Amino acid sequence: MKLNEFSEIKKLSECAEIKTGLVLSRKKSDKIKKYRYDSLNLKSINSHGYIEKENLDPFYSKEILNEEYLTKPGDIIIRLTAPYTAVLIDEDFKGIVFSSNFIKIETDSKKLVPEYLEWYLNSSKVKKHIDRQVSGTVIRAVNPGYYKNLNVELITLEKQNKLAEISKMMKNEELLLRTLLNKKEILNKALINEILKK
């Protein structure tokens, strides 16, 4: 089912470049500590589509890494294991190493707005489709080739941008609410501890 009658179906590989991550063991250095990078791990991306900076790992390479294995603004990084979360890279998270547990997607800006694609990949429709693909497998991981053949519904760039703005606003509101809830929880625990001390 299309988003609307004016949307067009394209393979993701027709409107974006998909790259697999680095096999870290090939470049890891146990001796030289000269080439240090931050590295994504499975805990770094939470299910809400955010990178948690405190969960990044330090990675020491034998050499300067090729740019293709580093994130840059506008890239979309996707976990290949459940919950298959897609996250859009901004200025705060550029230059991070992504391993073979992830893929990186670079969109063709004339066809596909990155923020729209992030929203689309995190939609329940796509997540359900992925679940069907991996059902019955022991390790619930998606093959990178799956995304190359994934159908993407292309609406006009104007509509993509409008949807991207709404999605960004929703994410910001959700982050603010979650931050507020965390602060409230800390405050409530402190109040309880204060009462128990008396």
Give your account of this protein's structure.
The protein is α+β, with helices and mostly antiparallel strands. The protein has a single domain, classed as DNA methylase specificity domains (Adenine-n6-DNA-methyltransferase TaqI, Chain A, domain 2, Alpha-Beta Complex), CATH 3.90.220. It has five helices and eight strands; from the N terminus they run βαββββββαααβα. The strands form three sheets. A four-stranded antiparallel sheet has the order 2-7-5-6. A two-stranded antiparallel ribbon has the order 1-8. Strands 3-4 form a two-stranded antiparallel ribbon. α2 (114-121) packs across α5 (157-197). The radius of gyration is 19 Å and the shape is globular.
List the helices and strands and how they pair.
Layout: E1 8-11, H1 12-15, E2 16-20, E3 35-39, E4 57-61, E5 76-79, E6 86-88, E7 102-107, H2 114-121, H3 124-134, H4 144-148, E8 151-154, H5 157-197
Antiparallel strand pairs: 1-8, 2-7, 3-4, 5-6, 5-7
Provide the structure class: alpha+beta
- Order of strands across the biggest sheet? 2-7-5-6
Mean pLDDT: 89
Report the total helices. Answer: 5
Termini separation: 62 Å
Order of helices and strands: EHEEEEEEHHHEH
Show unreliable segments. Answer: none
Which architecture does the CATH hierarchy give at level 2?
Alpha-Beta Complex
Instruction: Briefly note the CATH topology name.
Output: Adenine-n6-DNA-methyltransferase TaqI, Chain A, domain 2
Task: Give the proportion of residues in helices.
Answer: 25-40%
Main sheet, how many strands, which sense, barrel?
A: 4 strands, antiparallel
Provide the number of structural domains: 1
Question: Approximately how much beta-strand content do the residues carry?
Answer: 15-25%
Query: How would you sum up the global shape?
Result: globular
Report the strand count: 8
Please report the first level of CATH classification, the CATH class: Alpha Beta
CATH superfamily: DNA methylase specificity domains
